[in-house]
Every structure is written in C-alpha cells, then in structure tokens.
Amino acid sequence: MPAGLNLMPELRKDPILNRWVIISPDRGKRPHEFPTVTKMPHKGICPFCHGNENTTPPEILAFRPDNSAANSPGWTLRVVSNKFPALRNEGGMNLVNDGLYESMNGIGAHEVIIESPDHLAELNSLPVGKVEDTLLAFKLRTLDLKKDSRFQYILIFKNHGESAGATLEHTHCQLIALPIVPELVRDEIAGAQSYFDLKQRCVFCDIIAQEKKTGLRVVNQNERFITLCPFAPRFPFEMWLLPQFHADRFEDCAAEDISMLAELLKESLMKMQVALGQPAYNLVLHTAPMNGNNGRHYHWHFEIMPKLTKMAGFEQGTGFHINPVLPEVAAETLRNTRI
Known about the structure:
This protein is α+β, with helices and mostly antiparallel strands and 339 residues long. The chain folds into two domains: 14-38 and 182-335, HIT-like (HIT family, subunit A, 2-Layer Sandwich), CATH 3.30.428; 53-178, HIT family, subunit A (2-Layer Sandwich), CATH 3.30.428. Helices cover 25% and strands 22% of the residues. The chain has helices at residues 128-145, 183-199, 203-214, 255-276, 313-318, 327-335; strands spanning 10-13, 20-23, 59-63, 77-81, 96-98, 101-103, 109-114, 153-160, 172-178, 218-221, 225-228, 239-243, 281-286, 301-306, 321-323. The strands form three sheets. A ten-stranded antiparallel β-sheet has the order 3-4-7-9-8-13-14-12-11-10, sandwiched between helices. A three-stranded mixed β-sheet has the order 1-2-15. Strands 5-6 form a two-stranded antiparallel ribbon. Helix 1 packs across helix 4 (255-276).
C-alpha cells in the first residue's frame, strides 16, 4: 500500500462533475475476494458466431481480408443493427409538449460491433491488431452516423459479463446514436467549461499532468495515452483511459494514435482481468457531441468500470457512491500486475 494514505473513511470530490463519493477502506476487500463470475450459459445457436450470419440483420460494416461476400463467413469483424433496438432509425422527431411533460419519437440507431467470429474470444485476449480494428470500426461508424442531422450524440459501450448487462456471451460492443445529449455528458461538458472559464485550461489535461507528477494513481501509459484510477472513483478499480494530447472527439484520432490506443486498452483490460479474476465490467466511450464548440475544454476518454459491488438503498437514496477501495491502492495493484 502506498505510504501516507489515509485509511479512515473519506469524502472525495470529482473535480469535473463536483460529485462527491465516499471512499471507505474499512469496507474493502482484497481483489480475489470480490465476486468475479462472468461466464454465461451458452444456449442454442449463437447469432454472432462464424457461419450464422443469416441470423442477424444485414451487416452495415465488415472487415473481410479474403474479400468474401457480405453476410457470409470470412469476416474478422462485423457490424450489424441490433435485432432488438432501444431506438429505431425510421421517422421524424415528433416533439410533443403536454403541460409539464415532453416526449418525442424514439429515433436513433442501435448497432452491434462483433469483435471476432470466435465465440470464446474476449476483447482483452484478441491480438492488438484486432483491438485496433475494433477501435477503427468505432471511428468509421461514428463518422458515418454523424451525417444524420437527427442525431446529437453517439455512445459506444461494452457490457462484459451477465452482471454488467450482457445478454449474449459472444464478445461484442454496442453503439447507440441518440437525438439528445445524455445528461451525464452534458454535466461533464458543463464542468469542463466552468473549469476552463476559470483557469483557461482543460481540466482533463490538468488531471493528467498532476497524476503523472505524483504517479500514485497511474496504471500504465505510452507516448500518447494514459490509464489512471480517478481521484474520486465511483467504483472499486475504476479506470479512465485518456489521450495525453488534448482532443475532444474520438473520431478525429489518426491511424497511428488508434494503434497506440489499442495497445494500451488491451494492456489495461488484461491487467484488470488478471488482478481481479476475470470480472464483469462496463467499458464506455465519452466523446464530444456532434454539435457545439467543445474543442477547448472537453477531452474524450474511455471509462472502465469493473462490476465488483452493487448499488443498494443508500446509493439509490442519496446519489452517493460508496467505494471500498482507495484508488491509490487499486492503481498500485493494477500497475504491478504482470500479464
């Protein structure tokens, strides 16, 4: 454990969202004591497996090294519409105001990025080149969906393991294009704007600079990207992966940066999986909305959140998160994990 850490319960404030969390080491466990069962029962035909292409909607994007026909075997990565979408692409907004209440049609896009034809593969176990392909698919689909003026925000995320919300075992990510900007992203942007107005600097860039100076919460880094445990994490072993250069939009990443990002993402996920015993987790990409001038103050990033604890009555009733693991301890554990 890093020297000089306070082992008393502590309230910590997120410098971006001004959100308080409770860090309570007395409630903590060693990494191997957290529940980490992620395997899901395999039932029937997997629609994402090689050879079952006819069980999914037609592919939107596919990487096919052998130039095989669309919607047939031969792919290494495939993007399809979600068969059970949260939002649908057809129609207009149809905004309705009814006194206090507002509603609109559920317009959007809901896509699935199938990272591998191998049913037993996981994102962290794929070769770096395949992780790079996954990130490239994120970029290509974002650039394409940005052309639709109805969409204001694109959220890309991964649910790994049943307790993280996955309904199929086969490794995949999801993309949802929304007609509104999510509240959490709006709050992040507003917090970053307030900080910039005060100091004329990006708060994310300042966080990176301070974390590199102390090293306490840094997990790993390369020339262009860094993974760290945030100062006020909601969840034990939560990590953020950020570019060390200032950028507000993920889709603007150059090819060489996507390559370096793939290396660090794979390494960070591997460290988490080895240190914590294959936990379920959520991976979320936060990037700037399609409209608006956020280039000076916002900073895109991935958030990686292992599912090691559950929200109970206190969290639901107050909005406070109780985290039983100091981020300094989490970072040291992950940093020293051999993969």
